[in-house]
């Protein structure tokens, strides 16, 4: 970093820095520089007693501030090209829309190691990136895997995408609606190939980290001579810095990543792909609560490049925009090879004989179906979206249950390490030998999680090779890859798991999928729960019969107490369009998204009274604003679904409007007042605003 020379310093520059929320500093700050600096340049600046990394921000500085009061820039990151004007525009839009400061968001999406590097260290990193890129370029393109023959539908979709890629005007977003196994990934690969051939960079977003390595392997196999990097939270700080620098310098031509990668600096961006665009993982749940899918669409519009949103079960927001003609919908209605989608069978749990005690998840007919697949040497998948051995331990004598002393939730029984673990605050204790309340020695698990299901399957089907994939069984590095490799190699007969195994995985040998106990989401207070359940079950069904030769005998069982429910009726015919039409009609009549726009104001405090007092005061202030009297509705505060976590009480207040503009105007005026209110309400710990919330 070159130090600013002493002498005449008279050029004003605006610099975005990460200022604390309570400081009241919301925009870029003015500094003095010895020379003009290009917008997007990275600099070191003083703020109070600290020295911070900042970004020279586009726009005019405040000329009415006395230059004598301004502090000089301490240094400039030499050798690093400035961030582009479009990158700055993306961050500025995201900060305004999601109600954060520009500096906070801009600095949070850069690699943390950039803040720590000395000039000599930065030069060393840049040399390493150049060396790495040279090595990538030496790999022969002849090593690339051969390309499969395209289906008619794939060829038609690609022809449309090519037209958009070459169009002089800004192309509309493309919603690629393709059934599971229809070859969406091959479309991404071919579209990426065409963009790369045009000298462009490609950004591919996936919802979760565990999908990044396998997609990276697909792209690396296809593009052997193309520098490819990944960006996600599973990387070490050094890996993240190297990959970010490779993309920023234009050395990496392909960037794959999770939601954070939407902010990757790509100076020659030519194509954006969002795989499984419906997935809730694209919404950040803390800090700047942005939607990477929505920002990918905005970024593509800024850069005037195509964006592909791919899904077998698109989000209702994207589907509605396609219905209105704002998005271009392209369809892949058939599986590759002409294979049939798995037959869906609803098993009515009410037909089973009534027995005393809790009904078992592993019904006799289900075990028989699994046994038949075993005899044929086929693989099965049993899906239960609840990890651990059992959701709760229970005493039959005094009705004690294993609640968490710090949260309004149960602690889950994990049999493997004999612990009771809270999945909200992490509080863990050894399983008591007797009931802590009455001393009864006979305390028993109530309900079941994947750990218990795995054990029961092994007992009921001796000789079957049962494996479990969930957040507990794959928490150590390399475990997920090893387990997936075992499934692909045919070393597993029955795979048990949570939603982790329903997304994106191409299991060629699985012919049977069973969903155990999915009914809970049907009657949730969250209006999005049916949409999420339908997507999850469609994705789970899509893991079966991906090999065209086995597709005809592939099957999915759903064990349900409500087989007559409209959601299950649409599932049996794989009719997403009917489900979407029914859900959109319900949402329109109820005035819910996408026909309304929402924000949540959340408050966390040591007591319920403190959280409620803050939200009540905030609502009273907001209701005086003109926008609140013209179409913005502020609901009374209510506790969150899990009201207490780690001894912190949590409440939320819903704000609703039919006009996105009116909602944004109200929030923009409201936020400075919320900061002032926090100082008045001493019991309040934190507050946050969530625009377009996914979980209510």
TrEMBL record:
Zn(2+) 2 binds at residues 404, 407, 422, 425. Initiates the restart of stalled replication forks, which reloads the replicative helicase on sites other than the origin of replication. Recognizes and binds to abandoned replication forks and remodels them to uncover a helicase loading site. Promotes assembly of the primosome at these replication forks. The keyword Cytoplasm does not apply. Keywords: ATP-binding, DNA replication, DNA-binding, Helicase, Hydrolase, Isomerase, Metal-binding, Nucleotide-binding, Primosome, Zinc. Zn(2+) 1 binds at residues 395, 398, 435, 438. It is an enzyme of class 5 (isomerase). Its cofactor is Zn(2+). Signal peptide: none annotated. CDD domains: DEXHc_priA, SF2_C_priA. Gene3D superfamilies: P-loop containing nucleotide triphosphate hydrolases (3.40.50.300), PriA, 3(prime) DNA-binding domain (3.40.1440.60). Its EC number is 5.6.2.4. It catalyses: Couples ATP hydrolysis with the unwinding of duplex DNA by translocating in the 3'-5' direction; ATP + H2O = ADP + phosphate + H(+). This is Replication restart protein PriA. Binds 2 zinc ions per subunit. Transmembrane segments: none annotated. One of its GO terms (molecular function) is hydrolase activity.
